[in-house]
Amino acid sequence: xxxxxxxxxxxxxxxxxxxxxxxxxxxxxxxxxxxxxxxxxxxxxxxxxxxxxxxxxxxxxxxxxxxxxxxxxxxxxxxxxxxxxxxxxxxxxxxxxxxxxxxxxxxxxxxxxxxxxxxxxxxxxxxxxxxxxxxxxxxxxxxxxxxxxxxxxxxxxxxxxxxxxxxxxxxxxxxxxxxxxxxxxxxxxxxxxxxxxxxxxxxxxxxxxxxxxxxxxxxxxxxxxxxxxxxxxxxxxxxxxxxxxxxxxxxxxxxxxxxxxxxxxxxxxxxxxxxxxxxxxxxxxxxxxxxxxxxxxx
Length: 298
Fold this sequence. Notes:
This protein is of the alpha/beta class. 49% of the residues lie in helices and 10% in strands.
């Protein structure tokens, strides 16, 4: 079997331990930048992944993330951001990690070989119509692969992200995202270049998904959940910019809307009350641009 790219040694890694800190860091930075280019070669697959994720949420299904080790951490990081950034209800997001919650304190290797746990996790958390995003640098992590196989048999749609070509996880996917990252500067340490590329791809999937769900308007997160002062100020700025009103008026609209940014935008743009704003959003599938058009905004 040919050596996997993720286990190979970067051609510039020899002698890195003899370099000055500045020169060693220069090599590490360059390798990360090189790896970060790989998602650009997988745009079609990333677009399909975003479509599947948006379709699942639009249909009332769930978005499930899964992985082991550092790949699992990349998956979890994306999942945990979705409620606050895009207003995705927390009960519509699930994260499955090899080793469970304990792995957040101790990334032991043994749980990634536990096929029974993987299948049990899939049966517990995945249903027909859900979208499962599986992340594995090698593309053959036993836990992640077994979970994906079980979820597929349950009728879930599978998105796979891997950094090696021709791997089993990619073969069974409905959207197979191959991130062709170069070998690591520390051989096999896929938390580095492979992890960087995974994080970028995950960001791209979830952001395009949110755009397709109508949660982004002119680059602004119009469905965010403002649960601290920074986000409340951000929400006021969003309502102000999108509805074309002052910050004070925007803040009042947010209060009148009970904190719902989309509703506040429609209120500030001319809806007579919260009920009417919600009616307009219902008629336009919660799409802010369409709602503003109904109110006569260009």
